[in-house]
């Protein structure tokens, strides 16, 4: 049998959603030069569910001749031990951290099943988050400019500069109420801010992007159109960046950033506190 | 000075967005019975930025008489060491995992700055994610039923059962194209599925919720309305759950679940593979 050491089976296992396991696993594996064949096992809270996983571990080991990597987070000790006795390399993503904290602060942990965010414990937080998502949806893409006084931040930029995904992420992850407004041709020729924005100046934040990257993104959407042409992209960006500078609106370039990175950098530059949900 | 051991300063520090640090920190601290005063320091990539952090650590220690807890993730060794020499309890959220993996698989890591998701490395993934968000936004709340053949899943449920946040989360986190459709009075009296859904039966998934919880959520939105009355909520839910059973549509109760948990459970029950982004 030929063993391809450049490729490994990786399993994410949790008694909760396993989203945290995936996140941590991705960052850890991002440091190593091999391909991961990933599979996720959420809500492993019983022996029955663990049996399914153990079977897959055994199949992977037999098939590949090397142990799969398993990033896990489980509270029930028996399940954890059974997992660690199987033919895998197991990584408890929280275990050592919990131990270290206990040693440092001398307070005993009270183990509970993993819950990414709890609904019942804190209903206000639930409503805040839903309200932020709703507000942000209602104010996407300049649909309405009513209720700007409730906005935490107002994102400005040309079409396809990343406003919508950033707005939704900020609402979902940080519970912020985000307005986003696209500059379209009309605004560009007038090159001025809408009067509605005047009294909310302190909330304005610009997104810009490299012309080349914008062209690529627009071509992906409407190949061959004027809208996606190099000239149009360059013109729009130059006009809008001049506006940002003239009006002293802070802005960042989103070209090489993920949605998470854009959101976090905007928050930081705007001096907004994250509402940890 | 009175020391309140039930409350601690907690800092999240990263050379990236620090979102992973926050997530891990929350889960770890969720196991301990004390209150955390949290603050996040993203993009700590330079000595200057580290100095700001070290100052805050010192202030916290002097003010509280106990060391703050610092969950961190940083690649640059000098920054890491300087942090660990300050008056804090430091927890490297990745360090020990990377070491363990290295030992197990005998491949040396290639450290790189933390990036939650990379844009430039993998442009297809970027476009997939944006396309999923756009599709999902366009198909929110029954706005259109065109293009259902491209949907990964179609969520059904009464108003306020959690469809919109769940749809957006699935798009954002897992890159899935989600349609969601609310049952409104018309459908309820007819109590049948729209013909448009017939050929997509295998994609249908129901969300339901306890009558009491639904009443609470609707009261929060429109207090005192018929819409938010106990009777109306109970009637809608009974009707819709009967439909789910009659039509053999799988469904889950969202009452005590977070958006992350709903999304993950739906994926699991629907047998959809997560697209890890």
TrEMBL record, chains A, B:
The enzyme's E.C. designation: 2.7.11.33, 2.7.4.28
Protein name, as recorded: Putative phosphoenolpyruvate synthase regulatory protein
The entry's keywords: Kinase, Nucleotide-binding, Serine/threonine-protein kinase, Transferase
Binding site for ADP: 157-164
Listed Pfam families: Kinase-PPPase
Entry's transmembrane regions: none
GO molecular function, one term: phosphotransferase activity, phosphate group as acceptor
Catalytically driven reaction(s): [pyruvate, water dikinase]-phosphate + phosphate + H(+) = [pyruvate, water dikinase] + diphosphate; [pyruvate, water dikinase] + ADP = [pyruvate, water dikinase]-phosphate + AMP + H(+)
InterPro entries reported for this sequence: Kinase-pyrophosphorylase, PSRP
Enzyme class at the top of the EC tree: transferase
Primary role: Bifunctional serine/threonine kinase and phosphorylase involved in the regulation of the phosphoenolpyruvate synthase (PEPS) by catalyzing its phosphorylation/dephosphorylation.
Entry similarity comment: Belongs to the pyruvate, phosphate/water dikinase regulatory protein family. PSRP subfamily.
């Amino acid at each position: 049998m030929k063993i391809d050491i450049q490729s490994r089976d990786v399993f994410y296992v949790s008694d909760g959603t396993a989203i945290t396991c995936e996140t941590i696993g991705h960052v850890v594996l991002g440091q190593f030069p091999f391909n991961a064949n990933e599979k996720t096992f959420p809500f492993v809270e019983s022996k029955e569910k663990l049996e399914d996983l153990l079977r897959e571990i055994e199949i992977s080991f037999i098939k590949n001749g090397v142990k799969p990597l398993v990033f896990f987070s489980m509270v029930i000790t028996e399940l954890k031990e059974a997992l660690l006795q199987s033919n895998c390399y197991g990584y408890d993503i929280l275990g050592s951290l919990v131990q270290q904290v206990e040693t440092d602060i001398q307070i005993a942990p009270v183990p509970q099943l993993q819950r990414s965010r709890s609904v019942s414990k804190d209903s206000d937080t639930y409503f805040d988050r839903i309200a932020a998502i709703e507000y942000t949806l209602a104010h996407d893409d300049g649909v309405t400019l009513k209720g700007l006084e409730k906005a935490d931040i107002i994102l400005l930029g040309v079409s396809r500069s990343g406003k919508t995904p950033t707005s939704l992420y900020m609402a979902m992850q940080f519970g912020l109420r985000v307005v986003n407004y696209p500059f379209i041709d009309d605004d560009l020729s007038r090159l001025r801010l809408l009067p509605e924005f005047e009294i909310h100046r302190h909330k304005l934040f610009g997104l810009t992007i490299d012309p080349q990257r914008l062209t690529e993104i627009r071509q992906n959407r409407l190949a061959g159109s004027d809208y996606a042409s190099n000239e149009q992209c360059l013109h729009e960006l130059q006009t809008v960046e001049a506006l940002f500078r003239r009006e002293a609106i802070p802005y960042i370039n989103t070209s090489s950033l993920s949605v998470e990175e854009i959101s976090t950098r905007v928050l930081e530059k705007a001096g907004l506190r994250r509402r940890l949900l």
